[in-house]
């Protein structure tokens, strides 16, 4: 058999190296863009979950005439209170899940009522974010911190009147 008529099986080492170099270059170009998209998706998913909690808390408050305490937490949206008088008013579960969902990074949400941040009488809900530590730059929460002109931090929240365009009594 001559060399020309012999069939090639597989790829040579040089061909494999060229393919690997091309793949690495493609990942180097596309990888950061894809990872940035994932971070945005995680933040949006966590914000959506906080919005779901807010809606469920509003329904809970209609039935119970108050929000769950910090001690009861978001679990009060799933499990009826032990107190019989409160259990009669409870019309839950207010979430479809059997357990309180975690944020996009697998961390537990932080719930607080009465709130210590924000300017409205509504529970504070936050996610510690990607790093899993509270009070860092990557936290996702349902209140806003506004820098005042003198440089001090003040907590404030957009009221429902601000969202709907109706002037609030503060204006």
Notes on the protein architecture:
By secondary structure, the chain is α+β, with helices and mostly antiparallel strands. Helices cover 37% and strands 10% of the residues. The strands form two sheets. Strands 1-2-3 form a three-stranded antiparallel beta sheet, with helices on one face. Strand 4 (144-147) and strand 5 (153-156) form a beta hairpin. The protein starts with 12 loop residues before the first helix and ends in a 7-residue tail after the last helix. The model is unreliable at 147-171 (pLDDT under 50).
Describe the structure concisely:
This protein has about 170 residues and is an alpha+beta fold. The chain contains 3 helices and 5 strands, in the order H-H-E-E-E-E-E-H.
Give structural attributes.
3-stranded antiparallel sheet; 10% strand; 5 strands; alpha+beta; two-stranded antiparallel ribbon; 3 helices; 171 residues
Average of per-residue pLDDT values = 81
User: How large is the share of residues in beta strands?
Assistant: 5-15%
Report the structural category.
Answer: alpha+beta
Q: Quick one: overall form?
A: elongated
- Cα radius of gyration in angstroms: 26 Å
Largest sheet: 3 strands, antiparallel
Separate helix tally:
3
SSE arrangement:
Elements: H1 13-64, H2 84-89, E1 110-112, E2 124-127, E3 140-141, E4 144-147, E5 153-156, H3 160-164
Antiparallel strand pairs: 1-2, 2-3, 4-5
């Amino acid at each position: 058999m001559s060399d020309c008529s012999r069939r090639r099986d597989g790829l040579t080492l040089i061909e494999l190296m060229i393919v690997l170099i091309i793949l690495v270059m493609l990942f180097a170009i596309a990888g950061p863009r894809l990872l940035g998209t994932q971070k945005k998706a995680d933040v949006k998913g966590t914000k959506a979950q906080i919005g779901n909690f807010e809606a469920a808390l509003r329904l809970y408050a209609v039935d119970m005439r108050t929000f769950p305490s910090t001690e009861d937490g978001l679990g009060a949206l799933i499990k009826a209170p032990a107190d019989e008088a409160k259990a009669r008013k409870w019309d839950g579960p207010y979430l479809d899940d059997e357990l309180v969902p975690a944020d996009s990074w697998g961390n537990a949400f932080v719930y607080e009522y009465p709130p210590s941040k924000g300017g409205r009488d509504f529970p504070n809900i936050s996610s510690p974010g990607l790093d899993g530590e509270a009070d860092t730059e990557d936290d996702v929460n349902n209140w806003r911190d506004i820098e005042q002109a003198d440089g001090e931090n003040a907590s404030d929240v957009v009221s429902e009147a601000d969202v709907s365009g109706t002037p609030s009594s503060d204006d």
